[in-house]
Specification:
- The protein has a two-stranded antiparallel sheet with strand order 1-2.
- The chain has 117 residues and is mainly alpha-helical.
- Helix 1 packs across helix 6 and helix 5 packs across helix 6.
- InterPro entries: Phage_holin_4_2.
- Pfam families: Phage_holin_4_2.
- This is Phage holin family protein.
Length: 117
């Protein structure tokens, strides 16, 4: 349970970091980032697999790069649901998806290193 809460807070902080880096991508407060991270996690768990299956031929054709487009769409979808979480177009959503992927990769690696030591 503590791990899930830790990942939730890390994802909220990642959203704030991305909001400070990507123009057209914004989060009004840490509370809004927490809500956006929660909804993004739910959308990624429930809606993203359906989109992934429906777009599997395109994903295979692009060697998996279309997954970033799916992730950008999920971020845009969450921005339509959560007040105070703003994405002003597809390009900011795509850059946000790329940065969130990189941050997630780094934090997963750090958590794995911490567990091993």
């Amino acid at each position: 349970m503590a791990y899930i809460l830790f990942r939730w807070v890390i994802n909220a902080v990642a959203l704030i970091v991305v909001a400070n880096v990507v123009p057209g991508f914004g989060v009004e407060s840490f509370y809004n980032a927490l809500i956006a991270a929660l909804i993004l996690g739910l959308v990624n768990a429930l809606v993203r697999p359906l989109f992934f299956i429906l777009t599997l031929p395109i994903t295979i054709l692009t060697l998996g790069l279309f997954t970033f487009v799916i992730n950008a769409f999920m971020i845009w979808l969450v921005s339509t649901i959560v007040e105070g979480f703003v994405v002003e177009g597809f390009v900011p959503a795509l850059f946000a998806a790329l940065l969130l992927w990189a941050i997630s990769l780094a934090t997963n690696w750090l958590v794995k290193q911490a567990k091993e030591s």
